[in-house]
DNA sequence: GGAGAATGGTCAAGCCGCTTGTCTACCCGG
DNA sequence: CCGGGTAGACAAGCGGCTTGACCATTCTCC
């Protein structure tokens, strides 16, 4: 995964490794408690505001097409993580809303990822890790206000 | 992409954003100079040691199956980025070797990614970025010695 | 208030990247 | 020289996404 020729590894490789670690953790979480859920499902769940959200607005937040999103949503609905109800204010639209089980899943994700971060912090030092996280946060775009 | 409910964004989201930025840069590079090459192709190229390498050993380094790898290698071979020659020491095996054009591509990647990193450093501060990168490096596994 | 455009969502087909399974060619240890 | 292991190719299939077409409803504006 690193570069045998040149000295320092490519950023992309470093990022990929961290992603890989995180994904492994999420898969373990799925195996243990939420069978069938993939990384994108957890991300989707974490995007849902309390009052529910329309599919179209989720596409903007998630960067997926509405078709892809609908497809990703199907297992979530089937598993009882979200419920899809008609939007009272627009008969074309449907609201996607977290269920209790969905909230359970998002809480579990936070918990699990927090554990990974604690582990990382222990490995590289609390302060250094804090800096790294802050840097990544700074590099990320401003919060996407999906919940208005 | 961020979380509207809870405070701090998930690590996975932060990492994904950085990855996304990097990938965008690589795509731009492909459009400009190396049409058809995707992120995995650049990574593959950067894995190749000077003397060439066998497909099977690359699978270990890349984490892909040999079939996936062979598939990813095809466009590289077609584009003249690598050449595949029989291994003199084992008639079953074939050596994948960088061509000049391949070396050109890897150099371009390094250049381009270095530019992104300079940009990031300017945005968050040289020292903070240096810490972040060092942390990511520490978290990555020891160098995979693909070139023996 | 009615026609036309815009929006929310679904259905269907297809592509791409990867997987598993199977096969041949070759190496190596007895 | 024979059996097991390894290098790699071939084929089929699948998951996740895309584009394209379509229907239902709502908005806009004359």
From TrEMBL, chains A, B:
Keywords: DNA-binding
A single BP term in Gene Ontology: response to stress
PROSITE patterns per UniProt: HTH_MARR_2
InterPro entries the record matches: HTH_MarR-typ, MarR/SlyA-like, WH-like_DNA-bd_sf, WH_DNA-bd_sf
Segments forming domain HTH marR-type: 8-141
Coiled coil regions, renumbered to chain: none
Name of the protein this chain belongs to: DNA-binding transcriptional regulator, MarR family
Organism: Geodermatophilus dictyosporus
């Amino acid at each position: 995964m690193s570069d045998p020729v040149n000295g320092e590894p490519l950023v992309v490789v470093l990022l990929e490794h961290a992603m890989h670690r995180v994904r492994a953790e999420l898969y373990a979480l799925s195996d243990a408690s939420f069978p069938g859920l993939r990384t994108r499902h957890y991300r989707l769940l974490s995007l849902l505001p309390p009052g529910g959200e329309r599919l179209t607005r989720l596409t903007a937040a998630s960067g997926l097409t509405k078709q892809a999103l609908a497809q990703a949503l199907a297992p979530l609905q089937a598993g009882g993580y979200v419920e899809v109800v008609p939007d009272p204010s627009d008969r074309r639209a449907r609201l996607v809303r977290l269920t209790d089980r969905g909230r359970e899943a998002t809480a579990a994700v936070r918990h699990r990822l927090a554990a990974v971060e604690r582990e990382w912090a222990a490995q590289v030092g609390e302060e250094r890790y804090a800096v790294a996280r802050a840097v990544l946060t700074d590099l990320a775009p401003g919060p996407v206000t999906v919940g208005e």
